[in-house]
Amino acid sequence: MTWDNRSGGPPIARVRTLVRTFPTPEPEADGTLEWSATTAVVVLLEAGDHIGLGLTYSSPAAEAVIQHHLADIVRGSDALAVAADWEAMHRAGRNLGTRGLFAHALSAVDIARWDLAARVLGTNVAALAGGAIRGSIPFYGSGGFTTLDDTQLADQVDSWLRDGATRVKIKIGESWGTRIDRDLSRVHRLAALVGPGVAMMVDANGGYSPGQARRVGLALDDLGVDWFEEPVSSDAVSSLNLVRLSVRCDVTAGEYAADLYDIAALLPVVDCLQLDATRCGGYTGFLRGAALAASSGLQVSAHCAPAVHAPIATAVPNLRHVEYFVDHARLEPQLMDGVATAADGVLTPSAGNGHGLTLRRPAATP
Ligand SMILES: [Mg+2]
């Protein structure tokens, strides 16, 4: 049955969490971090006949944050009371700190809340956000780890081009900015792989000093790169601006933003704001962040988690694109059914209620 949201929805009867870790095919690295697996922390909220699903890519410790600090807030709550529970959860983080791990945990629960509310009302999450503006959204191929050899990079780029990607992004800033020659030669190689019709993007993950970033940025301009992500640490906002004013390519950041205060600090120093719904307060935080970016005349780009972002991104007017990050694009169909399909350069969400994603049965049991 469906519910009238003026009279409230069914109570949330059960809060379940689970952690799934997906090894990468081999160790991977960007400019400042190495990893060999990706961990998804999943939340399942049950109300009536409906189950809402949310997730964050985080530490397994995010599960404990949900169970110890957030589950009691949403258990027994009205399934349609999404905004009220967001406020209650955020208040519960006062002494812990509301950013970092806590924001990851809150984000997972909020995404599950949106999914559940939409399913209870018999509609999708875009409709709850005011309605889809478009049926699909542009994506860009993302990966290009510093650990890949030339053949592996060529294979990765080829897979994105087969999906119709018109933009691709690789990692630079290798070993904290100590391999600049290799960084630039890899961009040069990328240019040869994609040809003139595909835009090139790079992400230094904060690996350069401000001076290095300015000099690398000028070389990137010459190579035709139009997106220079986190040239320096995104915590160093004045340095971000320094780089931004020195180069032609867009300077971007925002993937670590946890709330509107973080976003407000970045808006004056970026050309496009990146936002991650699994970190910035769920769909609630993502939509609010996108609106705040619009107040500076900026577009937003969804960071990673393409399956999670695609359904809500269709309702965001100032959305530029969604990052089709290779690790997540690989694991999301293993974890969930209903994952958005990538073809012809766009991601098309499934037509199901909520965000259209459900936990796959093999993934449902440890
Ligand atoms: Mg990044």
Overview of the structural elements:
By secondary structure, the protein is α/β, with parallel strands linked by helices. Helices cover 40% and strands 23% of the residues. Helix 11 links the parallel strand 9 and strand 10. The mean pLDDT is 96. Bound molecules: magnesium ion (MG). GO terms for molecular function: hydro-lyase activity; magnesium ion binding.
Spatial separation of the terminal alpha carbons: 31 Å
Spatial strand order of the main sheet: 4-5-6-7-8-9-10-11
- Structural class from helices and strands? alpha/beta
Shape: globular
GO molecular function: hydro-lyase activity; magnesium ion binding
Organism: Lapillicoccus jejuensis
Cofactor: Mg(2+)
Protein name: L-alanine-DL-glutamate epimerase-like enolase superfamily enzyme
Labels describing this entry:
single chain; 366 residues; alpha/beta; Enolase-like, domain 1; TIM Barrel; eight-stranded parallel beta barrel; three-stranded antiparallel beta sheet; 14 helices; binds magnesium ion
In short:
Keywords: Magnesium, Metal-binding. By secondary structure, the chain is an alpha/beta fold.
Present the secondary structure layout.
Layout: E1 14-29, E2 34-47, E3 50-57, H1 61-74, H2 82-92, H3 100-121, H4 125-128, E4 137-142, H5 150-162, E5 167-171, H6 174-177, H7 180-194, E6 199-203, H8 210-223, E7 227-229, H9 237-244, E8 250-253, H10 260-266, E9 272-275, H11 282-294, E10 300-302, H12 306-313, E11 319-325, H13 326-335, E12 336-337, E13 341-343, E14 346-348, E15 358-359, H14 361-364
Parallel strand pairs: 4-5, 4-11, 5-6, 6-7, 7-8, 8-9, 9-10, 10-11
Antiparallel strand pairs: 1-2, 2-3, 4-14, 12-15, 13-14
Helix pairs in contact: 1-2, 1-3, 2-3, 3-11, 5-7, 7-8, 8-9
This protein binds magnesium ion (MG).
The site of magnesium ion has 5 residues, from loops.
